[in-house]
């Protein structure tokens, strides 16, 4: 999946600066009511992974995983989603989902458009910030106050959000039976996982302000680009394979210690026979 070529059309950003600020303020307010509410960068990685997941995960399933206790919401047919504790009102939850839908539609369109280069205007652009670069731009007194805090590397929080989905819907990210497809998956996932690690290279760039003090290594920037291409590959891989088909066991079932007939590679007793 090295060739991503076509004449990419121009696209507008789905979320304006004002909308992104609204989301940041909304998430900040939620932290006063609920624990472990993530930053928008984490959310963007999470949403991107949902789009790349083999199964279409319903909102009632992913919303509480992102902002609640992880338990899927019970929704009667034709009824609205129950309000999560993190939101102060149903209107706030509805607005959050409205903004998220705009972003997810944008990401789908970007990933489904073949491009020549990540510089193309139609290319997928993760919502990431050079936090280290921004910190270095602060006055010395303000930097001193944050000296003991752990500052993430470029794209690290985004990648952690992506992997949060992979880990919590592991069955949808299990390696396919086709050996070539499985290798394809492993190679793409490695680029995402690499981005969850710290940038230990020599800082030569500041992506927050090109005239600012160096905060990010060239190796990290290259790794970020590789991870973006990997997202394209993951989206294409699962779309080409379609949803997982649950195995229907007919006739005699395999023994408890035999390989499961669904092709998972696990023993029957640890899989469909559990």
TrEMBL record:
Superkingdom classification of source: Bacteria
Organism: Comamonas jiangduensis
Pfam families: SEC-C, UPF0149
InterPro entries per the UniProt record, alphabetical: SEC_C_motif (IPR004027), YgfB-like (IPR011978), YgfB-like_sf (IPR036255)
Protein name according to UniProt: UPF0149 family protein
């Amino acid at each position: 999946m090295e060739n991503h070529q076509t004449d990419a059309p121009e696209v507008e950003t789905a979320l304006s600066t004002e909308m992104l600020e609204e989301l940041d303020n909304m998430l900040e307010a939620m932290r006063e009511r609920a624990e472990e509410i993530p930053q928008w960068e984490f959310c963007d990685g999470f949403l991107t992974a949902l789009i790349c997941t083999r199964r279409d995960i319903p909102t009632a399933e992913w919303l509480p995983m992102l902002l609640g206790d992880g338990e899927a919401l019970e929704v009667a047919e034709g009824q609205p989603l129950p309000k999560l504790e993190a939101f102060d009102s149903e209107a706030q939850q509805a607005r959050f989902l409205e903004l998220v839908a705009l972003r997810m539609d944008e990401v789908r369109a970007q990933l489904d458009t073949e491009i020549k280069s990540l510089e193309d205007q139609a290319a997928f652009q993760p919502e990431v910030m050079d936090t280290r670069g921004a910190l270095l731009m602060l006055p010395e007194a303000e930097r001193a106050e944050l000296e003991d805090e752990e500052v993430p590397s470029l794209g690290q929080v985004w990648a952690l959000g992506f992997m949060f989905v992979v880990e919590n819907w592991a069955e949808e990210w299990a390696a396919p039976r086709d050996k070539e497809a499985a290798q394809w998956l492993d190679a793409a996932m490695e680029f995402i996982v690499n981005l969850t690690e710290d940038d230990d290279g020599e800082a030569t760039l500041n992506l927050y302000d090109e005239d600012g003090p160096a905060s990010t290594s060239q190796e990290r920037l290259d790794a970020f680009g590789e991870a973006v291409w990997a997202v394209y590959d993951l989206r294409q891989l699962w779309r080409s394979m379609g949803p997982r088909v649950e195995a229907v066991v007919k006739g005699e079932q395999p023994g408890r210690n035999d390989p499961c007939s669904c092709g998972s590679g696990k023993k029957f007793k640890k899989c469909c026979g559990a």
